[in-house]
Amino acid sequence: MSSNISSMEKLIKKLRDLPGIGSRMAERIGIHIFKMSLQETEEIISAIKEVKSKIHHCSLCYNITEEEVCSICRDSRRDEKVLCVVERTYDIPAIEKGGSYNGRYHVLMGALSPLDAIGPDDLKITALMKRIQTEQISEIIIATNPNVTGEATATYLSGLIKPLGVKVTRLAQGISIGSALEYTDARTLAKSIEGRREM
Fold it and tell me: Does domain 77-198 have CATH number 3.40.50.720?
């Protein structure tokens, strides 16, 4: 990066690289950081470093956790025979807010997207298939996003899982086509879980 770019411009550029942060928002956050005390900025830096050093993926479901196995996978009160398959870790809190799902999760770490060269081997599909067989799963809820890549992933997974004799359901309609789970309100997600349909 050129040395004649100011430190504020560098910060704004880095903030714009974050998902969901546009130019205007990056500028506002940059100005806010400038106005913060040195102690406040050091606390933010420390929190970021702590996340990078302590957080990793659960060895079972690929959720984020500080432990080897996440709290959801460890919770014996949850239905261990039902797996909700999501694209990303941030889809889990969105579903949990609805309060109507009590099973466990499996995070694919993305969705099938031939245009982006993302195929089945790039996702946690092999791990999912192993879990279905070893954990004696009775139902898979496919909760991929209701967009082109999410639907393609759901169809692909259904084709793999149904021959195993496992019930495969999809979230009910009600989630806007083209939207992402993380931006869907809790009530809509709860109703989608309740009204899931078999594939």
Answer: no
